[in-house]
Amino acid sequence: MKVEALAGKTALVTGASRGIGRAIAVKLAENGAFVYINYAANHKAAAETLKMIEKTPGKGALLSFDVADLSAVQKAFKEIISTRERLDILVNNAGLSIDGLTVRVREEDFDRLCRTNLKGTFNCCQAATRPMMKQRGGRIINVTSVVALAGNAGQAAYAATKAGIVGLTKSLARELGARNICVNAVAPGFIETDMTSAISAEQKEKVREQIPLSRLGTTEDVAAVVAFLTTEEAAYITGQVVGVNGGLYM
Ligand code: NAP
Question: Which of 33, 29, 15, 11 is CA-nearest to residue 132?
Answer without folding.
Answer: 11
